[in-house]
Amino acid sequence: MPNNDTTNRGYPLPHPENIMAEDATRIADAITEIDADMHAVQQLAAAADDTLPLPVGGLLAKNCRYFLPAGAEVTMPSAGLHEGDWVEFVRDGDMTAQPATIVFGHPVQDIPAGTHSYNANANRRFTYKNGEWL
Q1: Considering its fold, how many domains does the chain have in total?
Q2: Long-range contacts: 1-6, Cβ < 8 Å, 24+?
Q3: Tens digit of pLDDT per residue, the chain (134 long)?
Q4: Would you call 77 exposed, middle or buried from its count of C-beta atoms within 10 A (0-12, 13-18, 19+)?
Q5: Would the pTM count as exceeding 0.85?
Q6: Which domain of life is it from (predicted)?
Q7: Cβ neighbours of 105 (radius 10 Å)
Q8: Taking the alpha carbons of 89, 94, 96, 102 in that order, is the dihedral positive or negative?
């Protein structure tokens, strides 16, 4: 019985020279392996964290979740904002020793309007309401 398998994952494939009973078993084995692989991928996707690292320039994008390490200095988005836009931070466990600094820019002129030193004990979401970040 000729055995040919898929290139990447090695799933068993049917072969024209095999009798149907042999290939039926190979196909069943392949489907079982594919099912197990897909289940693993789905579990990883469900558990995946959509948290982004901070951008190099420090300017954040709206409607994104960022990992905020201790000592970071970041600038909140200030252009093209709409009511309800948000930026969320997942804090570093060592924030108490070295808080992060968040700069809030003016929505039109893109100049610093204030700073906030952030070292809370929980993650934090800032929401744009009534013309300012809250």
Answers
A1: 2
A2: 6/30
A3: 777 888 877 888 888 888 898 889 889 988 988 887 777 766 655 555 677 777 766 667 888 888 888 788 888 887 778 899 888 888 777 777 777 788 776 555 555 566 767 666 678 888 988 888 88
A4: buried
A5: no
A6: Bacteria
A7: 19
A8: negative
Length of the chain: 134
The single residue listed with the structure tokens 């954040």 is 60
> Token pair for residue 67?
């990992």
3-state secondary structure of 49: coil
CA-to-CA dists, residue 7 to 22, 36, 51, 84, 86, angstroms: 20, 18, 33, 48, 44
Residue with tokens 């952030």: 118
Q: Which tokens sit at 52? A: 């982004």
119 found inside a domain: yes
Q: Establish if 54 belongs to a structural domain.
A: no
d(CA 87, CA 24): 53
C-alpha–C-alpha distance, residues 109 and 105, integer Å = 8
